[in-house]
């Protein structure tokens, strides 16, 4: 099979590799679509992301879907031919985090496209059968792949406690910010304010359900967002984090999703005096059934988020396309050259 391999920083090569054999509890998936994530871009451009450093060749891509073509000995062979969305993680079954149902926090996690575990910019992958989630025929291949960033949005909504009638502030109108805006609509939020420095991205947010958008540099920003029920940062910008926390009503909730600097100053007095809850999101757990239901019902539109498609030999171009503010989500189709 062909695989697009990151050899070192900013160097990708398509290589021939053996098709993997599924273990007893795994399925083999022919990959049909893979979304490009910001983490892929960081590994490509910088060679690292936080504490993760690319020291050996690595296949990027963790937002993926495809068709099951083979199964391990413990998996029902009737699943062959099933179209699936892949939850790209393999936690320990015995860690305290997994046993609490918080398997995304398992310190021994094997996760697609993180150094040590290859991702899905290749023609075939294996995954434990329970993390290959069946999707209905009404869900496209692209949407099956993008259940992964939608799952980040669902995990965020749960942490933020989105509920009918809420006023929600989202800073950052990239693909995750837009997915969160769509989920906020689905959860019944009445006012969804999205901020971004790029007008193209603000316009995109409005088309996906934002009731208002604002330039964070505008002198009207503070007044436009004052008193929101929940704040989600999907930008990683320190200034956005501070401004969003300050905007919360008393007992409001802030959820930090975007990855930026490892440390930023926070408005501690506001957090204490208003009894704010400030938390983070790291991936997701138990989100795929909700994601599939939201897409299948038409309440979230993932297909319209796709702004470009690329073949396996065009992975570098797919990664570089994310620098264009008009790009929402680029998708690699490994079946294409």
Please describe the structure with a list of short key phrases separated by commas or semicolons.
Quinone Oxidoreductase, Chain A, domain 1, 29% strand, Rossmann fold, alpha/beta, 337 residues, globular, 7-stranded mixed β-sheet, 26% helix, 6-stranded parallel β-sheet
Give me the secondary-structure topology.
Layout: E1 2-8, E2 11-16, E3 26-35, H1 38-46, E4 48-49, E5 52-53, E6 58-59, E7 63-71, E8 83-86, E9 89-90, H2 96-99, E10 110-111, E11 124-128, E12 132-134, H3 141-145, H4 147-160, E13 167-171, H5 175-186, E14 191-195, H6 199-207, E15 212-214, H7 221-225, E16 228-233, H8 238-247, E17 248-256, H9 268-273, E18 277-280, H10 288-296, E19 306-311, H11 315-320, E20 329-333
Parallel strand pairs: 13-14, 13-16, 14-15, 16-17, 17-18, 19-20
Antiparallel strand pairs: 1-2, 1-6, 3-7, 3-11, 3-20, 4-5, 7-8, 8-12, 9-10
Helix pairs in contact: 4-5, 4-10
What does this structure look like?
The structure is a single chain. With 337 residues, the protein is α/β, with parallel strands linked by helices. The protein has helices at residues 38-46, 96-99, 141-145, 147-160, 175-186, 199-207, 221-225, 238-247, 268-273, 288-296, 315-320, and strands at 2-8, 11-16, 26-35, 48-49, 52-53, 58-59, 63-71, 83-86, 89-90, 110-111, 124-128, 132-134, 167-171, 191-195, 212-214, 228-233, 248-256, 277-280, 306-311, 329-333. Strands 3, 7, 8, 11, 12, 19 and 20 form a seven-stranded mixed sheet that branches. A six-stranded parallel sheet has the order 15-14-13-16-17-18, with helices on both faces. A hairpin with a 2-residue loop joins β4 (48-49) and β5 (52-53). α4 (147-160) packs across α5 and α4 packs across α10 (288-296).
